[in-house]
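Title: Prediction job returns without error message
Component: structure pipeline
Severity: low
Priority: P3
Assignee: unassigned

Description:
Job completed but the reporter wants confirmation the result is attached to the right record. Sequence as submitted:
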Amino acid sequence: MKEKIDLIEALLFARSEGMYAEDISKYTEIPKKEVVEIIEELQKYYTGRGIEITNTDNLWRMTVREDLIEKMKENIPVEMKPGLMRTLAVIAYKSPVPQMNVIQWRGTNAYLHIKELVEQELVEKIPEGNTFILRVTTKFRKYFAVRKKNLMEEGKKATDFVKEKIEKKKEELEKQEEKVVYEGK
C-alpha cells in the first residue's frame, strides 16, 4: 500500500498542471476508486502544511497552499511555455524595445505573452506615443541572475566575438587553400 501512496504522491508532485484520477489509474494500474481514496488520504495528510492537494473539476493538483503563495511570490519559479519564453528572450535581448517590434518578430500571440509577462512582473510596459516600450524588470534580472541592464550591448559583444572568430577561421582556411594550390603547381 505504501508503494501505491508514494507513486501517486510523486505523480501529483511531478505534474504541476495536475492529473485526473482516470489518468493516474491508467498509468499506475491502480483502480480509479482506490486512486481517489489514496488522494483523499494524502489530502488529509497535507492539511495545515505548506503544500495542499486540490481538486478542481476532478483535476487533482499538488500546490503551495493558497495563503502562502503571495508571501512566496518572489521565490516561486516561473513556469513558461516555449512561445512565452521566446517572447521574453526577444524582449530581454532588445530591451528596451517598442512593443510593435516584438509583435512583428513574434506574431500576434505576443500580445498575450506580453500581458502574461507583465502580470508576472518580468516585463514592464511603458506608454510611448502610439505604442509601448517593453523592458525587463528588476525581478527578471534577479530571477535570471542578470547583472547588466543593457542585455543588447552584451549580446552585441558576444556576436562580435563570434564573428571575429569566424573571420579568423576563414582567413586560416584561405591561407591553407593558397598553400595547397601553390604547392600543387
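Comment from assignee: result matches the submitted record. The two ends are 82 Å apart (CA to CA).
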